[in-house]
Amino acid sequence: MAKYFLAALLLLSVESGVSANPIETIVTLKTKTGTLEGSFTVPNTDTPVPVALLIAGSGPTDRDGNNPAMKNDCLKLLAQALAKNKIAVLRYDKRGIGESRDAGQKEEDLRFGHYVSDAVAWAQSLKRDKRFNEIIIIGHSEGSLIGMAAAQACDIDKFVSIAGPGWPADKMIETQLGSQPPEVLNMALPIIDALRQGKTVNDVHPMLYSLFRPSVQPYLISWFKYDPAGIIAGLKVPVLIIQGSCDIQVSEKDARMLARANPSAQLKIIRGMNHIFKKAEPDRMKNLATYNQPDLPVMPELVETITGFVR
Question: Quick one: 206 exposed, middle or buried, by C-beta within 10 A (0-12, 13-18, 19+)?
Fold first, then answer.
C-alpha cells in the first residue's frame, strides 16, 4: 500500500528554515524550433540547495499558472513559497505559450513528446548547475504526466505529482464525453478507437470538430500512448503524490490510482485544496471563483508537504 505522507510529522515549522529575499531571474533554453523562457527563483544563499523544475498543466497555461481566461498565480506563488524554504524553483512557459510562443510548431507538427523532451532538457541544464545538490521534478495536472515521463528519461532525485490524472488521455476524454448526450459519445468512440490505433480520421462531425479536428489528431495519437499509472510504476526515485480534496478537475480516485501503481510512493490528500492549490469549497461556482484570485495564497500545507518530502 502507498504510504500516506503526514505533514504533521514536521514538528518544527517549515518557516524555521526560511531564506529571506529569494532572487528571481529570467532564463532561456534553446531548442531546434526556438527559445523557451522561464523564471528562476533561487534562495539567497551561498550553499548548494535542492532545485525543483515546476511544469505547468494543459492548454495555454503559462509559467505562473495563468491563461487568457484566468489569473491566479498558483505556480508563481508556489515557487516563491518554496524558495523561502531554501528550495530553488525553475518554472517555464511551455513551447507555444507566453514568452516561449516562438518555439511553438504548427498544430499538425506538435507531439506530446516535444513537451517531455523540453522538460528533460531543462532538467539536464539544472544538473550541470553547481548551485544545486538535488533535482526534483514537480508536475501539475497534465504537467504531472510530462514530468513523470521526463523523470524516466533523465537523472533526477525525486518526483512530485500535484493533481495528476491517473488515466490515459483517451480514457479521460471518454469519461468527459460521457456527461454529454449519448449520441455525442457514440459519435466520438469510433474516432477515439482509430486514434488509439494510430490512425487519423477525416470525417469528423461538426459537433466534435474542435476536439478531433484533423490538424490536432497527430498530437492526440502521441498523447494517448502515455499511461500515467504505467509510467509512475517504473520510476525508481522517491515519489510524492499530492491531491486536493476540493479539486473539481482531477479526483482523489486519480491520485489513489497513481499511488497503487507505485506502492513505494507517498500519498498526501490535502483537505480543502482545489486544483490551483487554493483553499476552496466543493461548490463549483465558489470553487471556480478562486481561479481569478491571484492575491489568495496557496495552501500552506502544500508548501509544508513538498518541503518535508524534499528535506
Answer: exposed
Longest Cα–Cα distance in the chain: 62
> Smallest Cα–Cα separation from 308: which of 2, 4, 14, 51?
14
Kindly report the pTM of this predicted structure.
0.91
Separation in Å, CA 234 to CA 153, 189, 228, 264, 278:
11, 30, 10, 11, 31
Which DSSP category does 243 fall into? E
**Angle at the Cα of 89 from the Cα atoms of 121 and 27, rounded to 5 degrees:** 55
* pLDDT per residue rounded down to tens, the chain (311 residues): 443 333 333 323 343 344 468 899 999 999 999 999 999 999 998 899 999 999 999 989 999 999 999 999 999 999 999 999 999 999 999 999 999 999 998 999 999 999 999 999 999 999 999 999 999 999 999 999 999 999 999 999 999 999 999 999 999 999 989 888 999 999 999 999 999 999 999 999 999 999 999 999 999 999 999 999 999 999 999 999 999 999 999 999 999 999 999 999 999 999 999 999 999 999 999 999 999 999 999 999 999 999 999 98
**Residue bearing cell 516535444:** 114
